[in-house]
Amino acid sequence: MTAANGRVPVVLLHALSLDSSMWDAQREALERRGHPVVAPDQRGFGATALGDEPPSLDTVADDLARELDERGIERAVLVGVSMGGYAAMAFLRRHPGRALALALVSTRADADDEAARTAREGFVALMEDPVKGPAVIESTAPRLVGATTHAERPQVLARVRTAVAGASPASLAWAQRAIAARGDALDVLKATDIPAVVIVGEEDELISEADTRATVEALPRGRLVVVPGSGHLPPLETPEAIETELDALLAELDAFTTEVDPR
């Protein structure tokens, strides 16, 4: 399957607290163009059981590799938002050579510092508290979308609130601990010489400009896209903008494939 014949597979990796349904608009658009789409539920979310393995993004990456193997897919375009971006970078390290192109949305490449890890563990402790947990989890939803979504897209905020409220506290805790334990991925990005785009919402409260800049600069073929009117979840807040950027990335891959193999 190659970019040239329009059949390159695309993997869509979802954000924390949500599941693969957050990609429904992009999945439909890609499939209309003939692309096989793999949009898994990370363990503990959607239809996927959490399992007994200790928290690790390496486990998530290996889950994806196994699913691709089962589908007979050797290489694919990786697209990950937030936690899905962390999983994509773990996949790059664990399974080198299997990514054709890369889109990182609302994510960052450096590891958590001690303060961030401590904050995550504190959040996990609150989530696991049967009294405080529901209110703490509910409080995260408004921060996931931008001011424009709050003002103009109440249905998106309502969808995010429902998803966050419905997520299993055990799954949220597992994922937070896996994210906290991740290593720095700047080195693996520097070795990832494939078409790549780093996308961030202009109104994202969770990913800083410095984080985004470092991620873009690490990628040999990286470019930056700032999405107006979006917060941390552009695939839900501004789906058309993400569809446009994925089309552009696939066009870059087509040109890149012709460049490295002009036959």
UniProtKB/TrEMBL annotation:
<feature type="domain" description="AB hydrolase-1">
    <location>
        <begin position="10"/>
        <end position="242"/>
    </location>
</feature>
<keyword id="KW-0378">Hydrolase</keyword>
<dbReference type="InterPro" id="IPR000073">
    <property type="entry name" value="AB_hydrolase_1"/>
</dbReference>
<dbReference type="GO" id="GO:0016787">
    <property type="term" value="F:hydrolase activity"/>
</dbReference>
<dbReference type="InterPro" id="IPR029058">
    <property type="entry name" value="AB_hydrolase_fold"/>
</dbReference>
<dbReference type="InterPro" id="IPR000639">
    <property type="entry name" value="Epox_hydrolase-like"/>
</dbReference>
<dbReference type="InterPro" id="IPR050266">
    <property type="entry name" value="AB_hydrolase_sf"/>
</dbReference>
<protein>
    <submittedName>
        <fullName>Alpha/beta hydrolase</fullName>
    </submittedName>
</protein>
<dbReference type="Pfam" id="PF12697">
    <property type="entry name" value="Abhydrolase_6"/>
</dbReference>
